[in-house]
Design a protein that fits this description.
The complex is a heterodimer of chains A (550) and B (231).
Chain A: H1 2-8, H2 28-32, H3 37-65, H4 76-112, H5 120-142, H6 156-160, H7 165-192, H8 205-237, H9 250-284, H10 291-305, H11 320-348, H12 357-380, H13 382-388, H14 392-422, E1 424-425, H15 428-455, H16 469-499, E2 501-502
Antiparallel strand pairs in A: 1-2
Chain B: H1 3-6, H2 24-59, H3 61-69, H4 73-98, H5 103-134, H6 153-189, H7 199-223
Helix pairs in contact in B: 2-3, 2-6, 2-7, 3-6, 4-5, 4-7, 5-6, 6-7
The chains are: A mainly alpha (550), B mainly alpha (231).
Chain lengths: 550, 231
């Protein structure tokens, strides 16, 4: 059946020039007022890439400063602003929208056989809201920054901050509405816009993971919004809500902050897991092992993620009994995560594996996410957390999940769907080289931080005792390797837009409706609404890859 | 494949039919589900404040009782009645579209709903908030600690903070709601609603009822919380 769909949805002749969503209309106006989910995805891609560069520059300056124990570059106050900027920009303006708003926007309608998302105008509006948040945040960064850390804990953020905490909080508040609207749009699209025959259990796992992500967007984001609004009001009017000096309770802020911000971790990693499910099956040319387990583990992660926030507060003075419960629940969340890792590994078993660049990222993800996940168990244990809390061990742990996990998957997904998005293939050797460089650079940067944390080096300090210097220099060296690894794709992906090899509709011989239409797709996605008659990942009927490499 | 297939969905459809849907029913379902999902967001949005309120009230019951007595339950009660009536008129506006009544009927119910909403806001701003401002009980705008509050004063201020924050956000939702009703009235005046097509009315109705329900919770929590304590 899939072959029939392929024929129906491809233009009958390959006469040039081919009409597609990129050349259907021209001009800045046609982009800024577009309602096409694919163009909106690209608008997001440009925006978050810019924010990634901003956050990356802050990280680079931090790592440079930490080459010497006394601080090589900046004043301690400036260092505070650097790590706050890095955290806020990377979390709220890059990682949270990264895969959902770019690949998700681009792929959801294509994967479920729809012409567009359910609410295209809302989709464009959410981009404008996001850009407003970004501009406000960049304004804050340019006019003095914030120094509270990305967590905005009072009283740091109420009594002791001398920076523009209010505007930074409002930037996140505004960007949050973009998440909410995107989540709403995705939930409705996945419920109501599926093509005939596209039942829930024929959906690609990427869709399941984005569905789970959207639930967190919709239910979690409003809580951080109201929390930051209360914080803003407290700071603006000097009335006590969270600040103990004014009669408030700082613990309440931490509870409300982490009620969103722990699920937000899964906003970052769930879509990545969806990408990995697509990559692993495509490049081992096999059905996923245990489809329904992988699908439901996404939902399980989304649900449990709302019940574990207290593990960020083991040493904050919350009740010991609450700590016990949160610790147990945190261990529970490891189960669906492990289910995924085991199922990916089982999918690889006896598959015909090819090591294309996206697959290198996928395999890197599995290893790094496993390390990130398992070190999370150290932190979910009450007693070890007392030792490790607030040290570089925590920093290393969440970077293994967020960079080793989320960013690796984002890069892998971007390469995998690049031929579909642009109609061009990236240069293969450079791509594999960059994937390797990123893997090496990443581990060199963050593995030493596990050791530093275990030895007791606290996070968020501009200086450190001299005995930690060797490991810090190692970490900073790794960061520069990592930076090179990120710059290379930035160059060759732009290069490939013009000079890349022209891609056919399905260069990888992959399954999924997005590969049955032309590359780049039409504005309307499909010539004729596809009819789905088979399970996802039925690779036994898949076409041969167009590009065959050793 | 012909070019006609590409523009499938654009063809002879009425103006309110969007191209991405296959049928009008699918469009209606999507809109309704979208509003329910949005309301789930709203519940968590207000939920954050209700959580803060609940925590602080359990920590400082006496201060919250004093704060509650600063409010006049008669205005709150009147406004509750006004809002419940507005939910009824909203439901009647939808019903008159469903049963194919003349557009004048729909418009009349919509305008009545807006008037009731405006009455609520007028009472709230003119008689409650303005009065609070005169009495120096608005946090951040000349709030005065009164001697009879004693050590409770900071938490009384916190109560008033929550009061203004919660009712302010609620009022903001009311203003947005009245804006939506204005658009609906304009659409009704152009004869857009029929017994087949009334989705915008129904979906906006969900929002209006939600804002009403939030007030049903706000009224006892804010105005009646001090009931057990003597003045």
């Amino acid at each position: 059946m899939s072959t029939t769909a392929t024929v129906e949805n491809l233009p009958s002749s390959s006469a040039e020039p081919q009409v597609n969503y990129l050349n259907a209309r021209y001009g800045v106006r046609s982009w800024l007022l577009t309602l096409d989910h694919k163009r909106i995805g690209l608008l997001y891609l440009g925006t978050i890439t810019l924010m990634f560069v901003v956050g990356g520059i802050a990280a680079t300056l931090m790592r440079l400063n930490l080459i010497e124990p006394q601080g090589a570059l900046v004043e301690p106050e400036t260092y505070n602003k650097l790590f706050s900027t890095h955290g806020i920009v990377m979390v709220f303006f890059f990682l949270v929208p990264s895969i959902p708003a770019t690949l998700g926007n681009f792929l959801i309608p294509l994967m479920i056989g729809a012409r567009d998302v359910a609410f295209p105008k809302l989709n464009l509006m959410s981009w404008y809201i996001f850009v407003t948040g970004c501009v406000l945040m960049l304004y804050v960064v340019c006019t003095g920054g914030v120094d509270t850390g990305w967590t905005f804990y009072p009283p740091y953020s109420s009594s002791y901050a001398h920076t523009d905490v209010f505007l930074a909080a409002m930037a996140i508040f505004i960007a949050g509405f973009s998440s909410i609207l995107t989540g709403m749009n995705f939930v409705v699209t996945i419920h109501k816009m599926r093509a005939p025959g596209m039942t829930w259990f024929r959906l690609p796992l990427f869709i399941w993971s984005l569905y789970a992500t959207s639930i967190i967007f919709v239910l979690g984001t409003p809580v951080i919004a109201i929390t930051l609004l209360l914080l803003g009001v407290e700071r603006l009017l000097h009335v006590g809500i969270f600040d103990p000096a004014l009669g408030g309770d700082p613990l309440l802020f931490q509870h409300m902050f982490w009620f969103y911000s722990h699920p937000a971790v899964y906003i970052m990693v769930l879509p990545s897991m969806g990408v990995i499910s697509e990559l692993i099956t495509a490049f081992s040319r096999k059905r996923i092992f245990g489809y329904s387990f992988v699908a439901f583990s996404s939902l399980a992660i989304a649900v449990i993620s709302f019940l574990v926030w207290g593990h960020h507060m083991f040493v904050s003075g919350q009740s010991v009994y609450a700590g016990l419960v949160f610790s147990v629940l945190s261990f529970l969340v490891a189960i669906p995560s492990a289910v995924k890792v085991f199922n990916w590994t089982a999918t690889l078993y006896k598959g015909s594996i090819s090591y294309e660049a996206p697959m290198l990222y996928a395999l890197g993800f599995i290893g790094l996410f496993t390390i990130g996940g398992l070190t999370g168990l150290f932190l979910a244990s009450l007693s070890t957390d007392v030792h490790l809390n607030g040290t570089y061990f925590v920093v290393a742990h969440f970077h293994y999940v967020m960079v080793g996990g989320a960013v690796m998957a984002f890069m892998g997904g971007l390469h995998f769907w690049w031929p579909k998005i642009t109609g061009r293939i990236y240069p293969d050797l450079w791509a594999r080289f960059a994937a390797l460089i990123i893997f090496v650079g990443f581990n060199l940067t963050f593995f030493p931080q596990f050791v530093l944390g275990y030895l007791g080096m606290p996070r968020r300090y501009a200086m450190y005792p001299a005995e930690f210097q060797a490991l810090n220099v190692l970490s900073s060296a790794g960061a520069s390797v990592l930076a090179v690894g990120y710059v290379i794709p930035l160059i060759y992906l732009f290069w490939s837009l013009k000079y890349g090899e022209v891609a056919g509709p399905n260069p990888w011989g992959a399954k999924g409706l997005e590969w049955t239409t032309q590359s780049p797709p039409l504005t309307e996605n499909f010539l004729k609404t596809p009819i789905v008659t088979e399970e996802a990942y039925s690779y036994e009927t898949a076409p041969e890859p167009e590009v065959v490499r050793v | 494949m012909s070019d006609a297939a590409i523009v499938h969905g654009h063809g002879d459809n009425p103006t309110h039919f969007a191209h991405q849907f296959e049928t009008l029913e699918q469009q209606h379902d999507a809109g309704r589900l979208g509003m329910w999902v949005f309301l789930a967001t709203e519940i968590l949005f207000f939920g954050g404040m209700f959580m803060g309120y609940t925590v602080y009230r359990s920590l400082h019951p006496a201060a919250f009782a004093i704060g509650s007595h600063l409010l006049d339950w008669k205005f709150g009660g009147t406004n509750t009645a006004v809002l419940i009536c507005s939910s009824l008129t909203m439901a009647l506006a939808i019903r008159s579209a469903q049963t194919g009544k003349k557009k004048g009927t729909i418009i009349a119910w919509l305008i009545l709903t807006m008037l009731l909403g405006a009455t609520f806001l007028f009472l709230k701003f003119r008689y409650e908030w303005y009065h609070d401002y005169i009495e120096h009980t608005v946090p951040g705008f000349g709030f005065h600690y009164r001697p009879e509050w004693g050590a409770h004063a900071p938490q009384v201020q916190m109560f008033m903070c929550f009061y203004f924050f919660m009712t302010g956000l609620h009022a903001l939702h009311m203003i947005v709601g009245i804006g939506i009703l204005l658009v609906l009235t304009w659409m009704a005046a152009r004869g857009r609603f029929t017994s087949q097509y009334y989705a915008p009315l129904e979906i906006s109705g969900l929002y209006w009822h939600f804002v009403d329900i939030v007030w049903i919770f706000l009224f006892p929590l804010l105005y009646l919380a001090g009931g057990l304590y003597s003045r």
